[in-house]
Every structure is written in structure tokens, then in C-alpha cells.
């Protein structure tokens, strides 16, 4: 609801002096009671009746005009202003903006003559809402901002509540959602301070709308649901419908179409139970949101049905004719102001000039009205043609979009499959390369191990042969002593300068250069023999094989291993072979 609090405040202000008239049971229906009243009390009774029957244009306008007629007859300018303002409110509620505009401006002029500041503020408030409802948001914002400045200066918190809310609605219409949210939050804070449940509910709903517009869907749902619970407690049917409409729209924005449809259907059911004229605004929103939901669900039949209802009802509330009437009423009001200025001029020449201007303005006005009527007819025909074309284009567009979505899905699926196959091939190739490298490494290790074993066996054989030669009991020592000595010396020399052992060490250093490089960087104090010992241990050679390869004793190997462990800073329980393999 856009303006409930403002209209309530306005009604209370207009009828604050009507205590006696309203203390009776419908005094306006009792001829005897009316006859016994003073003229002022009778006018107040008619004003009270106009407010009582505000949902009926005929009754409320009848009583409002009776109050105005009596005020004019008795030349009571204050009651005349109040009567005009009451009529402006009545026509505003019935969306008759041209008449509302005329009476609001006349009431404003009367209050200015009376120097009634409060009356002027209330009349400006009506004018702000007239321009807002007629879609002239910039003018509405100008009125509301001036009102807010005045109410802040007066320190009237109740009036600041509805004006901040009004400015928030203006900015919302102008798509400036951040500023709108700022004013709605200010209205909510002040409403809670003043303990105004109806205004709190309205502010929560407006805040939820702005949060949804900014994409803050979860925050929007929280605000809207809190406002909805409060509207149920208040028993406000239209407010409940408005909350449900916005909940449906929020779920639509979140692409939760079933939830959106549920809340919009529930809202429509509640709104239609109301007889107030304001229900049309709620139904317009509901039809618009429902159209979007059914389009998203590809339910074109229901979408077209709600679109038709939306356009029909919107034309009833804010039609081209009403907009033109508002413009015409404003021009008439401005013309009347000029005529009043003419009466105040003392110069007859100036009077004639102004009369001529007024006549020219009237002719121009008639011409404009004729053009507007013609444009209305043309616009109506064009609108019907555009609706038909839009329906056809919408159907074609949806079919094309469905086809494109299908093609895109198929392409995406094929691309995904190709990427999966490529990844599988890469994985298999990597596994094959890993297996090949491992096989090559195993082969190299096997070669080194076999070479080491072979070298060890050969040295063992030579050593054994030498031992046997030493143990020979020669029968003629004098004859063969020299020869045997030469054989022993020769094999000892061959054993001491074993080229196979040197080649073995060189090959090992070449193949394990990365390992030896890392070992040297980490333990730079190791000798060459200790590095070779590390490589032989890494080949998993036994102590006996290592002793044979290096032509040293087993005990010497064990001592070398002990010194090596100390240089490597190893704990007693650590395995030397495992340590070197991990390195």
C-alpha cells in the first residue's frame, strides 16, 4: 500500500473539529439532527460522511460536494479548503487524477490565503501522491522532499515516517534502489520507535522489494516474511496480498518457479476478497509477476492470459486518457491562475493583453486536446497491433531459444566427452612412461648388482687361487721357487690394480650422479671412498660383496659403515640402506 498512513493522518487532521458530529450514529442520515446543527457542524458532518463512505465514489463525492457547497454559501474559507482537500483525497483514491489535482491546488491556494501552514503541508502531500500515481515521479519526488524538509524542521516524527516512505517509493520508481532502501530503512526505524505496526509492516515489505531488486534475495525473503506475519496480525487483507505478491516475485528472481506460483496464487485469492479500489494496484502487480513466472515455465497459455488481464487493468488505472486529463487539468489550473492575476492588474491595457494571451492559451488548449484525442485513438490501434505482433514474436522467440539451448547442450556434452577421453589418454600415456622409466631403472640396478656380484666372485676366485699357491709344498723348491714367486707377484699386482673395479666405480658414479650430487650438497665432508660405499649400499650389496669389490676385509667394511653413519648424523635404530634410498 502506497499511502495509507498519510491518508489516515490527513483524515484525522481534517476532522479533528468534528467531534460532536461524529459522536452521533450517522448524523448525516438524520434530517432532524442536521437541522439542529449549526452550519459549521453540518459541514463537518458531511465531511465525516465523505470519509466514512470513502470506498464508494458516488456517496463520498456527494457528501464532499455538499460540504463544499455549504462552505461557499457561508463564505467559510477554512471549511471550503478542507472540503476541497477531502474531495481531492476521494478522487485520488478512485484514481481520478485530473479532478484530484484541481481540488488539491484549490485547497492549497485557500490555505495560503489563510496562512495555514499545516493545511498547506497536507495539500502538498495530496499533490505529491497525485503525481506519483499518475507516473510523474520527478514532480512527486520534488513535493515529497520539500515536505520532508518541513516536517524535519517541525520535529513531527509521525509525518517524517510517511514522507521518508514516499521518497523511497519515488526513488524505487526511478530505479535508484540504493537510495530507496536508505529511506525505507529510516521509515522502519522511526516506525518502530513510534510503535506503528501498520507502518512497520509496510516498510518491511518495501525493504524486501528493494533487496530483491538489488539481488539480495535471502535478505529480501526475510524482510517480506516478517512483514507478512505482521500484516496477518493486523488483519490487513490488501497488505497481506501485497506481501505475498512480492514473495512470489522474489522466488521468481531466484528461479524457484513453483514457490513463486504458489505465493502469487495465494495473493490473488486474498486480494480479490477486498472491495477497496486499491486492490487494482495489487492485482496489476500480481498479473505482471504471474506473466513472468508462466513464461519462465514455458506455459504460454497462462502467460498470455495474465498478460491480457495485466494490460486491461493497467489501462483502467493509469490510462493515456487519465494522463492526458491530468495534463489538461494542470493547464486549466494554470490558466485559472493567470485569469486571477488578470483581475489584480490595474492597467486596462495589461488586462487586454493578458485576456488575449488567455484566449490564445484556450485555443491552444483546445487544439492540444483534439490532438491528444486523435493520438489516443491511433495509440490504441497501434497497441492492439503491437500486442498481436508481440505474441507471435514471443512464440517464435521461445521456439528458437529452445532449439539453441538444445544445440548448446549437445555441443557441451560432446566437448565434455572429448575432454574426458583426452584426459584418459594423457593418464594412460603418463602411466606407460612411468612404467618404462621404472623398468629402465630396475634394469640399470640389476646390471650394477650383477656386475658387482661378478666382480666380487672373480676377486674371491683370485684370492683363493693365491692362497692355494702359497700353501703348495714344492718337491724341488730350488728349481721352482723363482717361478712361483713371479706368479704370486703377478696376481697380486693384477688384483691391486683391478681395472674392472675402477670401471665399475666410474659407471656407478655416472648413473647415480644425481644421487651423489644431492649426497655431496647435504654432506660435503664425505670422502670419495665413503661416497662409493653409499652407492654400493644403495645397490643392496652385502658386506661380503663390498669387501671383495674394494679388496678390503669384512671388518674394514663394518668400520667404514660405522664411520659413515656418524657422518650422516643417523640414529642407532635407523636403517642405513633405507636412509640412502629415501635421499
From TrEMBL:
GO MF: DNA binding
Protein's UniProt keywords contain NAD: no
A GO BP entry: regulation of DNA-templated transcription
SMART domains: HTH_LUXR, TPR
Pfam family, one: TPR_10
Keywords linked to the UniProt accession: Coiled coil, Membrane, Signal, Transmembrane, Transmembrane helix
Residues annotated as signal peptide: 1-21
Protein name as catalogued: Tetratricopeptide repeat-containing protein
Amino acid at each position: 500500500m502506497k499511502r495509507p498512513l498519510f491518508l489516515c493522518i490527513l483524515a484525522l487532521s481534517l476532522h479533528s473539529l468534528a467531534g460532536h458530529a461524529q459522536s452521533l450514529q450517522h448524523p448525516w442520515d438524520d434530517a432532524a439532527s442536521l437541522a439542529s446543527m449549526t452550519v459549521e457542524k453540518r459541514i463537518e458532518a458531511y465531511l465525516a460522511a465523505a470519509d466514512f463512505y470513502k470506498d464508494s465514489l458516488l456517496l463520498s463525492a456527494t457528501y464532499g460536494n455538499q460540504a463544499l457547497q455549504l462552505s461557499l454559501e457561508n463564505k467559510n474559507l477554512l471549511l471550503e479548503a478542507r472540503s476541497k482537500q477531502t474531495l481531492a483525497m476521494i478522487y485520488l483514491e478512485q484514481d481520478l487524477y485530473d479532478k484530484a489535482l484541481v481540488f488539491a491546488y484549490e485547497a492549497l491556494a485557500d490555505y495560503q490565503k489563510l496562512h495555514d501552514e499545516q493545511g498547506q503541508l497536507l495539500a502538498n502531500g495530496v499533490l505529491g501522491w497525485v503525481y506519483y500515481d499518475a507516473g510523474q515521479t520527478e514532480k512527486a519526488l520534488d513535493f515529497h522532499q520539500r515536505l520532508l524538509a518541513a516536517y524535519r524542521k517541525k520535529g513531527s516524527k509521525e509525518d517524517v515516517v510517511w514522507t521518508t516512505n514516499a521518497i523511497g517509493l519515488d526513488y524505487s520508481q526511478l530505479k535508484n534502489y540504493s537510495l530507496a532502501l536508505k529511506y525505507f530503512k529510516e521509515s522502519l526505524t522511526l516506525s518502530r520507535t513510534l510503535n506503528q505496526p501498520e507502518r512497520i509492516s509496510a516498510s518491511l515489505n518495501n525493504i524486501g522489494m528493494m533487496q530483491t531488486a538489488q539481488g539480495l534475495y535471502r535478505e529480501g525473503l526475510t524482510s517480506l516474511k516478517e512483514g507478512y506475519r505482521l500484516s496477518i496480525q493486523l488483519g490487513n487483507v490488501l497488505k497481506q496480498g501485497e506481501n505475498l505478491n512480492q514473495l512470489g516475485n522474489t522466488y521468481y528472481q531466484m528461479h524457484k518457479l513453483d514457490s513463486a506460483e504458489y505465493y502469487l496464487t495465494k495473493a490473488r485469492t486474498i486480494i480479490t476478497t477486498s472491495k477497496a479500489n486499491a486492490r487494482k494496484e495489487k492485482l496489476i502487480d500480481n498479473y505482471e509477476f504471474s506473466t513472468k513466472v508462466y513464461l519462465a515455465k514455458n506455459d504460454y497459455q497462462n502467460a498470455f492470459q495474465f498478460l491480457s488481464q495485466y494490460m486491461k487493468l493497467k489501462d483502467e488505472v493509469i490510462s493515456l486518457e487519465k494522463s492526458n486529463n491530468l495534463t489538461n487539468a494542470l493547464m486549466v489550473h494554470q490558466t485559472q491562475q493567470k485569469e486571477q492575476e488578470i483581475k489584480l492588474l490595474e492597467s486596462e491595457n495589461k488586462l487586454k493583453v493578458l485576456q488575449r494571451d488567455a484566449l490564445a492559451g484556450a485555443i491552444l488548449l483546445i487544439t492540444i486536446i483534439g490532438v491528444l484525442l486523435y493520438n489516443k485513438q491511433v495509440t490504441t490501434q497501434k497497441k492492439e497491433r503491437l500486442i498481436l505482433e508481440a505474441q507471435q514474436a514471443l512464440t517464435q522467440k521461445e521456439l528458437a531459444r529452445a532449439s539453441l539451448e538444445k544445440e548448446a547442450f549437445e555441443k557441451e556434452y560432446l566437448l565434455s566427452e572429448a575432454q574426458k577421453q583426452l584426459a584418459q589418454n594423457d593418464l594412460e600415456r603418463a602411466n606407460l612412461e612411468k612404467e618404462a622409466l621404472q623398468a629402465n631403472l630396475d634394469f640399470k640396478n640389476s646390471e650394477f648388482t650383477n656386475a658387482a656380484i661378478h666382480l666380487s666372485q672373480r676377486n674371491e676366485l683370485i684370492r683363493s687361487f693365491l692362497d692355494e699357491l702359497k700353501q703348495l709344498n714344492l718337491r724341488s723348491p730350488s728349481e721352482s721357487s723363482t717361478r712361483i714367486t713371479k706368479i704370486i707377484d703377478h696376481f697380486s699386482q693384477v688384483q691391486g690394480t683391478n681395472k674392472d673395479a675402477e670401471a665399475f666405480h666410474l659407471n656407478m658414479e655416472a648413473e647415480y650422479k644425481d644421487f651423489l650430487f644431492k649426497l655431496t650438497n647435504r654432506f660435503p665432508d664425505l670422502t670419495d671412498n665413503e661416497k662409493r660405499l653409499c652407492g654400493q649400499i644403495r645397490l643392496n650389496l652385502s658386506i661380503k660383496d663390498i669387501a671383495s669389490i674394494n679388496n678390503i676385509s669384512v671388518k674394514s667394511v663394518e668400520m667404514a659403515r660405522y664411520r659413515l653413519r656418524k657422518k650422516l648424523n643417523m640414529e642407532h635404530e635407523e636403517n642405513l640402506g633405507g636412509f640412502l634410498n629415501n635421499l
